[in-house]
Write a structure and sequence with these properties.
Elements: E1 2-7, H1 10-20, E2 27-32, E3 42-43, H2 51-60, E4 63-68, H3 72-75, H4 78-84, E5 88-90, H5 94-101, H6 103-112, E6 120-124, H7 128-136, E7 142-146, E8 155-158, H8 161-172, E9 183-188, E10 193-202, E11 206-208, E12 213-214, E13 217-219, E14 223-226, E15 231-234, H9 241-261, E16 267-277, E17 280-287, H10 295-298, H11 306-315, E18 329-337, E19 349-350, E20 360-363, E21 366-369, E22 372-375, E23 379-387, H12 390-403, E24 409-410
Parallel strand pairs: 1-2, 1-4, 2-3, 4-5
Antiparallel strand pairs: 6-9, 7-8, 7-9, 10-11, 10-16, 12-15, 13-14, 15-18, 16-17, 18-23, 18-24, 19-22, 20-23, 21-22
Helix pairs in contact: 5-6, 7-8
The structure holds adenosine monophosphate and glycine (GLY).
Length: 420
């Protein structure tokens, strides 16, 4: 069958590798794709937010399965549209995607279904006074979240009362995040260590994928501004059976039961952003898709035929599948451009020595220019490696990180260090 994969980052490169290896996949199209996916299928400039164009493309290329990488097309209803055309799609409809698209909805859902999460209140733009009063009743630091999508930037952790008041006004009255910030969630700060848990659902049952930990800050020791992700490891060494059991019982099970109770048909990936605080898991957020850069360590560990798995999702028969997970660890280190996540230069030639061993390169921000591959973004490429131990995998990712060269190369040298 012909498959269309929506997206163009490292996550989609990792998914494309899995899909292209399936004997069931005749032709893979990636929209828009990247330099890495170009060797696994055909990149196409198709825009996922133009449903008419998607319709034309899917028809003229006999697409039987559409896999949606990023959240935006899902929040906009692409999966509902494709379902209406009887095309298999991996990703929830608009109703399910609200779990990511509206933090107001997600937190109310967690509350209704008794899912462990930080105490919170939601406020609208005309409630600045009571929002401040509620924030004043919490101890510092305080977490303020724009309810809508904000490209991962809509969460502000306020360290002072002044900061808290300014942020409330900034979002509710000064349009810091446009419409996305016209409703805010104010919540208690939870101290702990974060991890990402993933489930794939067909609307009737679900399977848990390998868990992962990503590293969001630009600087070593988790300092400096947030990025799109500087590295990841899978599985998370501290996530033992007891913790995973608690996550299943207190978060995953009640979520899928809640979705059924609210008659929200959820198929596709569901990402649980978890904070483990003194051994107890709390749900920080849902995402209606896989993580990036977590995908660059999770998909390489999956031994299943991805297309077979996805078709089982479409048939509502995920219960017949067993997720086969490679033993050992997978790690990835992201190479980024100097200056990222602020200003950085593009167009620097990248050299990948052909002596590079034991590593898979997932492209994120690169471009083919004649015979050369050049930098074309902040996050350039993820260097993924396996190992029997976390140390072994990391040493391979890091050996590659040293060997790949481009002007202004930067990477964090402490990925996975906190877990050893
Ligand atoms: P979210 O988009 O809700 O996951 O928030 C983005 C990031 O903000 C998370 O990955 C956490 O690092 C941080 N964060 C969100 N909520 C909280 C909380 N209640 N306590 C501490 N940190 C939080
Ligand atoms: N790595 C976090 C995310 O994909 O949202």
């Amino acid at each position: 069958m012909n498959v269309l994969l929506i997206g163009g980052g490292g996550r989609e490169h990792a998914m494309a590798l899995g899909i292209s290896r399936s004997p069931l996949c005749k032709k893979l199209y990636i929209a828009p794709g990247n330099t890495g996916t170009a060797s696994l299928g055909e990149n196409t400039p198709l825009k996922a937010d133009d449903f008419n164009d998607v319709y034309k493309f899917v028809n003229s290329n006999q697409i039987s399965l559409v896999v949606v990488g990023p959240e935006l097309p899902l929040v906009e209803g692409l999966a509902d549209f494709l379902n209406g055309l009887n095309i298999a799609v991996i990703g929830p409809g608009k109703g399910g995607a609200r779990l990511e698209g509206s933090k107001e909805f997600a937190k109310a859902f967690m509350d209704t279904h008794h899912i462990a999460t930080a105490d919170f209140h939601t406020f609208q733009s005309w409630e600045i006074g009571i929002a401040k009063a509620y924030a004043d009743s919490l101890s510092l630091p305080i977490v303020i979240k724009a309810s809508g999508l904000a490209a991962g930037k809509g969460v502000i952790i306020c360290e002072t009362r002044e900061d808290t008041h300014r942020t409330i006004e900034g979002m509710l009255s000064d349009n810091w995040f446009g419409l996305s910030g016209k409703t805010i969630v104010i919540e208690k700060f939870l101290k702990g260590i974060e991890m990402s848990v993933f489930a794939l659902s067909d609307g009737y049952s679900y399977k848990i994928f390998p868990n992962a930990k990503d590293y969001k800050r630009i600087g070593e020791g988790d300092t400096g501004p947030n990025t799109g992700g500087m590295g990841a490891v899978s599985p998370v060494p501290f996530a033992d059976d007891l913790l995973m059991q608690k996550i299943k019982e207190r978060i995953i099970e009640p979520t899928f039961k809640g979705l059924k109770a609210e008659e929200i048909f959820y198929s596709g990936f569901l990402f649980f952003g978890i904070m483990v605080s003194e051994g107890e898991p709390y749900l920080l957020e849902y995402n209606c898709r896989m993580g990036d850069p977590e995908s660059e360590v999770v998909f390489p560990l999956i031994e299943n035929d991805l297309v077979e798995l996805f078709m089982a999702v479409d048939a509502g028969r995920l219960d017949t599948q067993e997720i086969m997970i490679k033993p050992g660890f997978c790690t990835t280190v992201m190479l980024v451009s100097q200056g990222y996540p602020d200003e950085y230069e593009k167009g620097k030639a990248i050299t990948v020595p052909n002596t590079l061993r034991d590593v898979t390169i997932f492209h994120a921000g690169t471009k083919q220019e004649g015979d050369e591959i050049v930098t074309n973004g902040g996050r350039i490429m993820a260097l993924t490696a396996f190992g029997n131990t976390l140390e072994e995998a990391l040493s391979r990712s890091y050996a590659a990180a040293e060997l790949v060269q481009f002007e202004g190369k930067y990477y964090r040298r402490d990925i996975g260090k906190d877990l050893r």
